[in-house]
Amino acid sequence: LLIAIALWVVSIIARGGLIAGVQQVEEEGDTSFGQAWRAGASRFWTLLGISILTAIPFIILAIILTATAAVGILAAVGASSGFEEVALPAIIAAITCGAGLCCVLVVLGVILDQIRTYAERAAMLEGLGWIDAFVRGWDVLKSNLVPTIILWLIFFALGFILAGVIFVGIMAFTLPMLGLTFAAEPGLWLIGPACCGGLVAIVVFSLIVAVVETFTSATWTLAYREFTGIASAEAAVPALEG
Q1: pLDDT of 184 higher than 80
Q2: How far apart are CA 177 and CA 195, in angstroms?
Q3: In 10 A of CB 26, how many CB atoms?
Q4: In angstroms, rounded to a whole number, what is the distance separating the alpha carbons of residues 109 and 98?
Q5: What is the mean pLDDT of the chain?
Q6: ∠221-223-227 over CA atoms, to 5°?
Q7: Mean of the pLDDT values across residues 213-219?
Q8: Which of residues 8 and 189 earns the better pLDDT score?
Q9: What CA–CA distance (Å, rounded) separates 179 from 224?
Q10: What's the DSSP call for residue 128?
C-alpha cells in the first residue's frame, strides 16, 4: 500500500514535470530532469486537487453502481426463496441500470480525463489554482472540441497498437516457457529463466510505455499552447523586442 501511494505521488509530480519540461524547452531551448522535477513538485497540491475533482464523479457513480449490484443480488436471493414475481423485475431493472451506468462511466471517464489533461497544463503553464485550472480545462475542451477528438483518436489508435505489441511480446515469452514446462518435468530450474525473462520483459515494455507517454504528454502540451495562444504570445515577444 505504501509503495502504491508513493508511486501515485511520483506519477502526479512526473506529469507536472513533463509539462514543465516541454514549456522550458519551448521558452529556453533546453531543460533538465532536476528543473522539470522541481517544477512538478512545486505544483503538487494543485495537481492533486485536479485529480480529486476528476475522481469525484467516479466515486459517486461507483457508489450508485454498488447499490445497483446489491439490489440485483438481493433480488436473486429473493427469486431463489420463492419471490419470483417481485424479484424478476428487480433483477431486470438492476441489470439495465448497471449496463447504463457502465456506459455513462466510460463516456464520463473519457471527458473528465481530457479535462484533467488540459487542467494540468492550465495549472503548470498559467499558474492557476486547482478549481480555476479545472474550469479552464473545460473551457479549452469546449472551444477546441474537433481537434481534441482528432488527437484523442490518434492516441487511442497508438495505444491500441502498443497493446497489440505488448500482447505479442508476452505471448512470445510465455509460449516457449509453456513448451518447456510440458516437454520436461517442472522443476526449480524453471524459476531462473522465468524470472530473468520476466524482468527483461518488464524493462522493455516499461521503456516502450515511457516513450509513448512522454510523446503523448508533450503533444498535448504543445496543443494546449496553440489552443490558448501561449505559443503565439511567446513568438510575438522577440519580434516586438527586435
Answers
A1: no
A2: 11
A3: 17
A4: 16
A5: 81
A6: 120
A7: 91
A8: 8
A9: 50
A10: -
Helix residue spans in the chain (DSSP H): 2-28, 33-42, 44-80, 84-126, 130-143, 145-183, 191-228, 230-241
Residue 196 has a pLDDT of: 75
Distance CA 74, CA 212 (A): 45
Q: Output the pLDDT for position 204.
A: 81
Contact of 50 with 134, CB cutoff 8 Å = yes
* 14 grid coordinates: 512526473
Residue 188 is given by DSSP the state G
Cβ neighbours of 108 (radius 10 Å)? 14
Digit-coded pLDDT (tens) for 124-154: 999 889 899 999 999 999 999 999 999 999 9
Residue 47 CB: number of other CB atoms within 10 A? 24
Q: What single letter denotes the amino acid at residue 143?
A: S
For residue 54, give the amino acid letter: T
With cell 503533444, the residue in question is 219
| pLDDT recorded at residue 208 | 84
| pLDDT (mean) for 172-177 | 71
- DSSP letters spanning 83-120: -HHHHHHHHHHHHHHHHHHHHHHHHHHHHHHHHHHHHH
**With the CA atoms of 70, 74, 75 and 78 taken in that order, what torsion angle do they form, in degrees rounded to the nearest 10?**
180
